[in-house]
Amino acid sequence: MYLEFINQVVSVLENAVQRAGFEPVEIAPEPSQHADLSSRVAFKLAAVARKSPVEVANQIVENVQLRENSLIESIGTTGPYINIKASRTYIDCTFETVRSKKEDFGGNFYSGKILLEHTSANPNGPLHVGHIRNSIIGDTLTRILRKTGYEVDAQYYVNDMGRQIAIVSWALEHFEMDPDLKSDHAIANVYIKANARLEDDPQKVEHIDNLMQLVESGDAEVIKRFDDAVDLAVKGIRSTLLRMNVHHDSFVNESGFVRSGEVSDIVDKIRKTGRTDVDDGALVVDLSDYGFEKTLVVQRSDGTSLYTTRDIAYHEWKAMQADRIIDILGADHKLISGQLKATLNAVGLKEPEIVIFEFVSLPEGSMSTRRGQFITADELLDKVQARAFEEVEKRRPEMSPEFMKEVAGMVGIGAVRYDIIKVSPEKSTVFDWKAALDFEKQGGPFIQYSHARASSILKKAGEEGIWDPASKPNASVLTDESEITLIKQIALFDKVLKQAADDLKPHIIAIYGRDLADAFNQFYRFSPVLGAETEELRNARLGLVDCARIALANVLDTLGMGAPESM
């Protein structure tokens, strides 16, 4: 509804500018403390018109024409600023639209197909804390882009033939996996042992190199060994991802691009650019004119390809599958991602849009680690969910263990996802599980609790026979400041969805969710619902509670968080 409001404002002002005799100019109204929207268009026109901005603003407003039932109440001036106030129609239409569209409220204004790659951790062990931000940013962006109307294919690019996988394959031949461990954790254990053995006996490194040559040349036995190792690790990784409510549509193996001949083809295309040279037997690409002093190696001296080479072939394939390509990468990939884009550009291929994120860390001493190992995502999730269970048990001791476990799962995973996503990707962040689970702070649990509160109010009203979800309350009786503020906050959902999708900044939705929950709680604090003065007002306020519940549920779903009906 907010986007429709903005469109009407732009159209009205453009027509007023034209009728006032000024040259057409871009109009971009912005939020204002003094009105619902404000425009600085008079400043743009003043110099050309040789008039003061105040005079220009007054002339524009004098030529404003509003149609009947417009979403605009009035357009006036404060000095050189043009201020726009939303009409009662805007309030009532928002109320009715939310209740009629329900889970479809918000978005659906874009089209096209996007291929979005995220996580893509090496399958040589479990996901660790460092991977979590990649997964959550990628999954949340997928949800945002789908909500705005795009068809999105979320992909995990599986490194199934690099040196690390060769070591895992070799490790499985020399060390026994612990059957009591989750498969990806068991893989990590033998991988660590193998690396220690290789350090003690460097001659065995030649055997690893040989395995890499054999798998690239198509040796069936070695390929099967690699595939078996990768399958074990990916099985465990997928389990962890699903636990975090992170979903991929497809897992694409990099080896497929070697076996299909696409890697050889892309190397030939790179050679034809005239940028290649041989350095100590390896084929390298000169990207100095793109600002990279360091050359990019695309083929080793033994003729085998590198991860980067296979990644270029993967991106050529992706370019044929979608209108847009998006990669979610850590800050340590800035150089290689830049070289990747430059190489693709040099051979005339579509470049990906790359979201670079800084790393997430844990406060010192926040939880224990096994000596010599990283903190796994599973360990972190176990700790957070256990703490969430304690909190739910303390607050709702009368409830069943099944209820406590279900809510603790929603709250724990929601707390992790929200605390990670609330920070803009380019900023580093520290995940503090105690702060994330603090119900008193405006974090994930605060938004979930607001949804649960709205659901409980409606449930109680239904049990008392004073609320029918199919009813059509009279929204025009909602005139209190807290009521209008809440409705206007709900109406902003379209705007923040568009901004988050356009800028690829998922934290915008997280901030909006917090503000929406705050607006709902302020409304509930100042506007009695079940105890309203009249039946008509009570029904309207119950309808507004329903609007808030719907909007909160849609925001939580977009953030990949559960929407509990009771907490």
From TrEMBL:
Keyword Amino-acid biosynthesis listed: no
Record-annotated Arginyl tRNA synthetase N-terminal domain positions: 3-86
Example of a GO MF term: ATP binding
Keywords: Aminoacyl-tRNA synthetase, ATP-binding, Cytoplasm, Ligase, Nucleotide-binding, Protein biosynthesis
Domain DALR anticodon binding span(s) in chain numbering: 447-567
First-tier enzyme category under EC: ligase
UniProt record, GO biological process: arginyl-tRNA aminoacylation
GO cellular component: cytoplasm
Enzyme Commission number, as recorded: 6.1.1.19
Record Pfam families: Arg_tRNA_synt_N, DALR_1, tRNA-synt_1d
Intracellular or extracellular location(s): Cytoplasm
The keyword ATP-binding appears for this protein: yes
Catalysed conversion reaction: tRNA(Arg) + L-arginine + ATP = L-arginyl-tRNA(Arg) + AMP + diphosphate
Motif ('HIGH' region): 121-131
UniProt family annotation: Belongs to the class-I aminoacyl-tRNA synthetase family.
Protein's name according to its UniProt entry: Arginine--tRNA ligase
Species of provenance: Methanohalophilus portucalensis FDF-1
